[in-house]
Amino acid sequence: MKAVICDAIGEPVRVVEQETPEPGAGEVLIEVQACGLNYVDALICRGGYQVQPKMPYTPGSEFAGTVVGVGPGVEGFSPGNRVLGRGGYVSHAVRPVAALNKLPDNMSIDQAATFIQSYSTLCYAYERARLAEGETVLVLGASGGIGRAAMDLAKAVGARVIAAASSEKRLDACRAAGADGAVNYASEDLKTRARELSDGGVDLVVDPVGGDVAESALRALGYLGRYLVIGFASGTIPKFPINQVLLRNRNMVGIDWGAWSGAHPKEQGEILVRLLAMMEAREISPQEPSTYPFERAQDALDDLYERRMIGKAVLIP
Ligand SMILES: NC(=O)c1ccc[n+]([C@@H]2O[C@H](COP(=O)([O-])OP(=O)(O)OC[C@H]3O[C@@H](n4cnc5c(N)ncnc54)[C@H](OP(=O)(O)O)[C@@H]3O)[C@@H](O)[C@H]2O)c1
Predict the structure, then answer these.
(1) Which end of the chain has the least Cβ crowding within 10 Å, N or C?
(2) Phi-psi region of 178 (alpha: psi -120 to 50; beta: other; left: phi over 0)
(3) Segment 76-85 mean pLDDT
(4) Letter string b/e over residues 228-250, b meaning 16 or more CB atoms within 10 A of that residue's CB
(5) Quick check: is 304 in a domain?
(6) Mean pLDDT computed over 301-313
(7) Are residues 89 and 9 in the same domain?
(8) Residue 32: its pLDDT value, please?
(9) Is position 51 within any domain?
(10) Pairing status of strand 313-316 against strand 27-36
């Protein structure tokens, strides 16, 4: 089987041959057909993430593929089943069946490979912030992975979405994905435009970007507005004047889905089942990602990190 490995921080990743594992009791062998790319993968390989894995290391955290082998005692899974699961950039993986979910017929392998992290994070975040039908959500970095999931799930609960991004090309992608309003934060004043587009203030801000635009986004929140702190793709952790939280009785809500899902596997499993049911019912429509072969994994990580990518991407083994 093939695997992408990072030998040392800052070195280009490379593809290596490894022995294909055999499924044991209660396990299946999956032929991985797409591996989801996430911003954190690029960050870890560059040494920029708060947790550093031991090297050499296989980056990645989610995949989708087809069951090709079944170990003893497996029930409910058979060769040919299309599944999604957690794990790095490899062409074959063995997993216990309890760690896998089957795909609905209307979900492509590529969509599934980019689904777990971004959609679960937003599902968990919206539960924490109690997003309700009819509310208005301002999404920063809206054309990115987290941003697209934030828009899709907000629309699914009947909220209005204002997409904010750094270029017209990115905003066009957001409009095509259903955004009700759009703000270019590279050329417009975010607070002023977001307030205009929301009759005086938005109910929720989804912020995976941080940096310069964050304070403007906080000031765009209306009465009892909630600010979801999700990430710092800009590379800068914003510092806020705390009076802006007191004013209008606003709330700051920190989201660390990775830590939460690790500590609450049962609840995370329930979130994923719910999300897949929404997919099957066509209540959400995850973007079809762009594709890179394994051999171009470093290009893909660079495109992601250096802001050249629009939306999600997968690596194909
Ligand atoms: N808290 C959690 O549980 C959790 C879960 C998943 C991900 N995250 C974090 O969320 C962040 C975003 O993830 P993502 O998957 O949405 O990433 P992504 O697909 O790369 O999108 C990030 C967006 O940030 C904006 N951005 C601004 N400055 C940037 C810069 N210097 N480099 C790259 N992008 C920049 C870009 O939009 P514009 O060009 O339009 O500004 C881009 O579309 C990451 O920091 C990730 O680690 C957190």
Answers:
(1) N
(2) left
(3) 98
(4) bbbbbbbeeebeeeeeebeeeeb
(5) yes
(6) 94
(7) yes
(8) 98
(9) yes
(10) antiparallel
Instruction: Quote the pLDDT of residue 52.
Output: 86
Q: Based on the domain organization, do 93 and 160 belong to the same domain?
A: no
Give residue 50's pLDDT.
80
Distance from Cα 73 to the centre of ligand 1, integer Å? 42
Of 187, 152, 191, give the one whose Cα is nearest residue 169: 187
Distance separating alpha carbons of residues 224 and 203, to the nearest angstrom? 7
- Which structural domain, as residue segments, surrounds residue 308? 2-115+286-316
CATH of the domain at 166: 3.40.50.720
Identify the H or E element spanning 205. Answer: strand 202-207
Looking from the CA of residue 141, the nearest atom of ligand 1 is 37
**Pocket residues for ligand 1 (CB within 6 Å)?**
38-40, 117-118, 121, 141, 143-147, 165-166, 170, 208-209, 230-235, 255-258, 304, 307
Instruction: Identify whether residues 226 and 305 lie together within a single domain.
Output: no
- Judge if 24 and 49 occupy the same domain: yes
- The pick from 148, 307, 309 for probing ligand 1's pocket by mutation, whose C-beta has the most ligand atoms within 8 angstroms, reads 307
Tokens standing for residue 98: 């309890």
Name the residue at shortest CA distance from atom 37 of ligand 1. Answer: 141
Query: Are 133 and 233 in the same domain?
Result: yes
User: Ligand 1: which of 37, 43, 49, 146 to mutate, most ligand atoms within 8 Å of CB?
Assistant: 146
Q: Higher model confidence: residue 93 or residue 52?
A: 93
The DSSP symbol for 104 reads P
Whether 95 is in a domain gets the answer yes
- pLDDT tens digits for range 108-151: 999 999 999 999 999 999 999 999 999 999 999 999 999 999 99
- Cα-to-centroid distance, 202 and ligand 1 (Å): 21
Residue 270 lies in a domain: no
Residue 48, pLDDT above cutoff 90: no
